[in-house]
Every structure is written in structure tokens, then in C-alpha cells.
Amino acid sequence: MKLSRNTLSVALLAALIAPAAHAEVALDVIGGSEVSFEGLVQADFYNFDTDTIDYGADSATDLDGEDYVQELRRAELVLKGKGPGNFEWVLGYDAKDDKWLDVNAKYKFGNNANHFIQVGQFKQPGATMEELSSTKNNDFISKSSITNTLGTPRRLGVQYNYGDVNWGVTGSFFGRELTRNREHGSGYALRGYWAPINDAGNIFHIGASFLDKDTDGDAIRLRARPMADIVPTRFVDTGSSRTSASSLSNRTDRASSLGVEGLWVKGPFKLQGEYMKTDVQRTEGLADFDGDGYYVSGLWNITGETWGYKAGVPTTGLPDDPAKGMWQLGLRYDAIDLTDGIVVGGEMDSVTAGVNWYWRSNFKFMLNYVIVNQEKGALEDNPNALEARLQFYW
């Protein structure tokens, strides 16, 4: 799993010498479509104060005794097109994870950016508000446990959205993920949101979502990393056994999730929280499984900037003073419970404290300290981690 020093050095050097431009790079006008190019490169470093598990291992079976791991987290390359007319399209690929990102076409009705139909692969409306927000503006290095564990990622499908600047309703039907050997199982998703207060530096938003899908192959596995995205080992895990009734990878039919979300912005302060509950229907007389989780986070822009609002998610702007950059302090509490009845997946709660520095138009530096508590039956594992991220985007 570890990235070689030479590879990491080349990636960071390329970020540092690249030309600075916040907006995407305009390429050409082809067939009436204004084509542009975007990119996002993230390099992570984690150092663990581990309890019982070797989280610095190259894989869950190849233990090396190290207490740190470093690796490129993302290397996203995205082509976008506007036009002809009210059409828009996007073609995205993550070279690090070797998978397709957004690959879709959208038609906007009239001049309303919140009234459209979309076909292709896109983030499902049944995902969390955090997942629907831009990855480059994550508040913390690891997204919440409900986003990573209970949310449904990008899928191929069709979506219809109707709304205005402060409200919207979305529905989608979806199938598998475009990249082969990834997520499968067809289903549908719904989301609605409303911002009764939506002014500059003063936002209040509430929303709810529902998703229902086939578990595909009569199996589903739910597991959570210890708030560290690139480690291979998960202590909290509902199991991979295809024979044991205590494993969700055996005799399941459908899975659904219900989510609620809230957001409040007041000047340089942002408070955000989400709750998600999942229900897995099981066959052959086995009791259904219920799991849930939530997070609450607070951010303070100590340099005074505020947030915007678009399509039901917060947006992060540029620093007021590019030379000094925008500084943020953040705190998050996160919890997830994957134990129900005979399925003992475990429980995890964590506290993350972080500082972010957006420098000029293209760079972001993140530093987090995470305290994690995990229980699974009579077992415990309580690692702490110091996490850092260097990001370049254009």
C-alpha cells in the first residue's frame, strides 16, 4: 500500500510547480460545447498510536509492524462540457483508484440550474449531504462513517431534479457502478431539501433522503475504517462468511437507508450534522438487520470567510487574502453502530480535531488528530491517529 518516496516526491513537486488558476482550464469549443479540464491530487500521511491492530500494514494479511502509512489518496482527471444549448456533460476518472467518477450528460430546463434531467453515472441523491459536496472541500481528511459505510456511491442511472435556489426534490433509478467488479444492485433514491434562510453568510438548511436497493447476490457487507481512508483493515465489520447466519454476507434480500440532515451557517461559523439508518431485509426466516450512525461537526473560518449554498449543499469559496490564505479550525463527533441481534458488526465512535489552510487558489493543507473507540462483542480496539493531507487542484 505504501507509496514510494520517489513517486510521492514527483507528485508533490508537480503540484508545487504547476500554474496557479482556480477555475478549470479551458481547452476548446467542439461541436458547440465549451470543453474544460479539471484535476485533483491528494497525498495522505497517517501515523497511528495503535492498540491491537497493525493499521500501517500493506494489506489486511501482509502485516509489517509499521505504525504509519503514506499514499496518494486521489488523482482525479475530469473533462467537462457546456453546450450546445442547455446540455452539459462530464467525464471523470480517478487514476489512483482506477475507477470512473462522474460520467454523465445533463439537460437543464430553461435557465433554472435546479431543474434538469441527468443520465449516466452520478452521485446518488440517497447519499449523504457530505458525499454530495465537492471532495476538494472536505472539512476533514476522512469523511464520516455513515458516508463511507452506509451511503451508496456513484451508480449508472437516470435522475430528475426539480427546484429553485433554496429548495429541491430529486429522484433517481440506478443500476451498477460503471467500473466493473465494483458496486452492484439496482434500486431507486429520493432526496428533498429546503433552506428557509439563504442569504450571504446566513444559511439554514434541512433535508431528508431515502434509498432502496437489491443487495445483489443475496449478500451485503457493511464495515467501517477507523476514520483513516487508506488503511486496509476494518475492526468494525459485519463479516464476509457466506454460510454463517451471523454474517450479512449470507441470505439477504434488499437494503434501504433513511437519512436526515441539517446545516447552519452564520458568518465564519458552520454547524453541520447528519443521521442515517439502514435496514437489511433477510431471507429464510432470519431477522432483519438495522444499523445506524451520525456525525455532528463545527467549522470556524478564523480568517473571516463564510460559505455559499448550491443545490442543497454548502460551497467553499476562495480566501479573501490569497497570499495569507484561509484558515479553518474544525471539530467533529462521529458514531456508527453495526451490531443488531446475531449480527455483531461492532460499534465505533470518534472525535476529530482539525486545521485546514487554503492557500491561494489551488492548494490546501490539512492536519487532523483522531481519537477512535471501537467495540465488537467482548473485544476492543482504540487507536489514535495523526493525519495530514497535501492537496492540489485546478
Automatic annotation (TrEMBL):
One Pfam family named in its UniProt record: Porin_O_P
Keyword Signal part of the UniProt annotation: yes
Signal peptide: 1-23
Organism: Agrilutibacter solisilvae
Protein name stated in the entry: Porin
Keywords per UniProt: Signal
